[in-house]
Specification:
Thiol Ester Dehydrase, Chain A, 6-stranded antiparallel β-sheet, two-stranded antiparallel ribbon, 38% strand
Length: 141
């Protein structure tokens, strides 16, 4: 799937991604890069991207990897996220690069690095785990 196809799925499945203007720059089954453009909507006092926006973008980046690896049919759920905020991002744009560390079982482990788009400085380091959702059986008549 192309980055544009993954982006369209993300915007439909998570309207917040569309509202924020998140762009999928690269998406493959092992790594994805997504960008959050500059927007007053995601800033906190001090003219820097807010923590919730950084965490949201990191989560979206990991989902992009999972969507790419399942031809857009991923229904996994975030089960854990640990964020280390290393330095302010400034007003954006910012880029989140996600990669799968271990993904063979029911639990998927990933890492996301969030950087300033202008300088490449690392602003946040995220580790995350997701749980694969089993297909639901039809209800008994």
């Amino acid at each position: 799937m192309s980055p544009a196809e993954i982006e369209a799925i993300m915007h439909r499945g998570l309207p917040l991604a569309a509202a924020w203007g998140v762009r999928v720059l690269e998406a493959g089954p092992e790594q994805a890069r997504v960008e959050l453009p500059s927007s007053a909507m995601v800033l906190r006092p001090g003219n820097t991207v807010s923590g919730p926006a950084i965490m949201g973008l990191a989560d979206m980046a990991m989902w992009a990897v999972l969507l790419a690896g399942t031809q857009g049919r991923d229904e996994s759920l975030t089960s854990n996220m640990h964020v280390n905020f290393l330095r302010p991002c400034g007003p954006g744009p910012i880029v989140a690069t996600a990669r799968i560390i271990k993904g063979g079982g029911r639990t998927i482990f990933g890492e996301v690095v969030v950087t300033r788009a202008d300088t490449g400085e690392v602003a946040a380091h995220v580790t995350t785990s997701w749980v694969r959702v089993k297909a639901k059986l039809p209800a008994a008549p």
